[in-house]
Amino acid sequence: MRIHVFDYGAGNLHSLLKALDGPERSLQVSTDPGAAAEGADVLILPGVGAFAPAAERLAGGRDAMRAAILAGLPTLGICLGMQLMFDGSDEGPGAGLGIFAGRVTRIDADRLPQIGWNALDDRRDGMFSASGLDVAYYANSFACRPSDPSVVIAWSTHGRDRFPAAVRHGRCVGVQFHPEKSSTPGRRFIEAFLDDARRAVPTLRSV
């Protein structure tokens, strides 16, 4: 399984790469968005940084990456990576991938950023039942607001705000929390996503 991680230069990827590592997997980190999508069996958009500089890094290969995701490339966007799957963000200028219609806005709460553990409610995807993940680790001040609420597969609440904890469109999954920092259930969630991706790629089914 060729797992490509798009690095927009925002933070340490060590914990994420450790969670993704495993038998019969090759990990490649790329700062080129087009190269990150090309030849990948799985694409990961990591979760540290601010929207504007990440969108700027994405701009040169945005169309190629978007086309690959819409064509069925299994993709996991984590925190900022989830936000980049939307049209844009109030955090700063730049265009997201537009996989999900909607924008990213500041969470309505007195205490920001939200840093720490929070419950996941109304979970309705097999990845949650497979992993047992019902509480996850967050580090965010902004949240995604999809135009179509039916894409939401889990919710969380912070302050006065209830916001999507996870969204899904086909093989594209976005999570506002950090599964790689959410203890054993979080790492199991990543494994559940990769298992789902394996079933989506015919050449990997026998691995």
Automatic annotation (TrEMBL):
Catalytic function, reaction form: 5-[(5-phospho-1-deoxy-D-ribulos-1-ylimino)methylamino]-1-(5-phospho-beta-D-ribosyl)imidazole-4-carboxamide + L-glutamine = D-erythro-1-(imidazol-4-yl)glycerol 3-phosphate + 5-amino-1-(5-phospho-beta-D-ribosyl)imidazole-4-carboxamide + L-glutamate + H(+); L-glutamine + H2O = L-glutamate + NH4(+)
Residue ranges of every copy of the Glutamine amidotransferase domain listed in the record: 6-193
Keyword Hydrolase: yes
Active-site residues, as the UniProt record annotates them: C79, H178, E180
Single GO term (MF): imidazoleglycerol-phosphate synthase activity
UniProt record, GO biological process: L-histidine biosynthetic process
Enzyme class: lyase
Listed name of the protein: Imidazole glycerol phosphate synthase subunit HisH
Record organism: Pseudogemmatithrix spongiicola
Lineage, uppermost ranks: Bacteria, Pseudomonadati, Gemmatimonadota, Gemmatimonadia, Gemmatimonadales
